[in-house]
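Input chain follows. Return structure tokens only.
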Amino acid sequence: MLIRDIADYVIAEHTSALPDNAIHWAKRVVIDWCAATAPGSLLQPSTGLVRAMHEDIGHGSARLFPSGRTATMRTAAIINAAASHTVEFDDIFRDGLYHPSTPVVSAALAAAEHQNLNGEAFLRAVIAGYEVSTRIALVMGRSHYRYWHNTATVGSFGAAVAAASALKLDRDGVANAIGLVGTMAAGLQQAFRSDSDTKPMHGAHAADTGILCAQSAAQGVRGVLDILEGEVGFGSAMSGECDWSIATEGLSEYYNITRITTKNHGCCGHAFAAIDATLSVKNEHGISAADVKRIAIGGYSATVDICSGRDHRTPYEGKFSVPYLVATAITHGSVRLDAFSDARLTNPETSTLARKVELYLDEEIDAEFPHKRMARILLETNDGRVFEHFQPTRKGDPELPLSDADISAKYRELAGPVMGDGGEALLEALWSLETCGSVRDLPIRVSHDAASA
């Protein structure tokens, strides 16, 4: 049975001889998760969840990131997951249309702290969660993404596997955790077609569901062991055309965690190729906003469906508007956290330029989605020059990965202002996480200076 085969893999991964690159990439995704989570912890919905779940804070052995406040395992996973998905800097499994770190690292860290695991065991839980959930994402395919948000649905499986691994469930326990989660995995794409706080709540839901199902399975609660491939199961109901052999293909042989996209821009990943193409033209030809007569951006269906909005009155609208993102890339040279400040969102030069941007569906590019994320730009200047550029991938994708130094720089940029001096000590510890005797010893805390700033 499929779920039992997956459970066998999870159990084996507790002691398997992992390749060095899998461990290294697991450390990278944890550091990147910290980078995304720190600024997200200051915003809704994380701040609202802290107030809503206050009765669970100050109890338990798990910690909220980056404050270090203790909480129950489940509450820590929920709040941290919401924070990690808020500023749109969390990682991507491109081929599966999925942000794995949000549910997987959040659940794995909370469970590892609850269990007082060492760093290697924590990393193994992260790896197991990534490998199982990324393969399920591949099975569900593009048709699932038409209505569902994979980070909420598929992410629930990743969180369950990571938590089950950290809690050291036996074969039946892992299988039941997965069987339970399959009927609770949900999250509609409508949540990010309009301005709301719901999208990060999808990550919170996935982490919560995974933790709950692992905890329940540990106490003998049984799941539906054919929930994935059953006649009216997860695949049939939410995709329809599933090859479930992909779910176990290559487990323990190759590691999808080594092919993760690390975000280089603080917005929807479907806009990245357009931003990269724009920056290429800008930097190569010295283009300024005053030079531009019009810009035409060709993208794939998700870019057009999700990121075609022209309004950028709020940070959320700006993060899902290719016209604004392309315009701000030209006017300011980057799309980082400050791109969504009030001053930048209301910048007259950027707003004027955004109105000159046309986004259209490029059928050739769309045919390669989701396995390739491409864009095409045509930029015409006021003096009659025309520049064209084809962007075959995104910076941060497996073909153009960020270096370890880039990962550290991103961490310092995003987490540093929140954590203060404490951030550097944590970064150093995370790069040698496999040697850590207890994850509870990780210096997760906000320095006094940062807290009072």
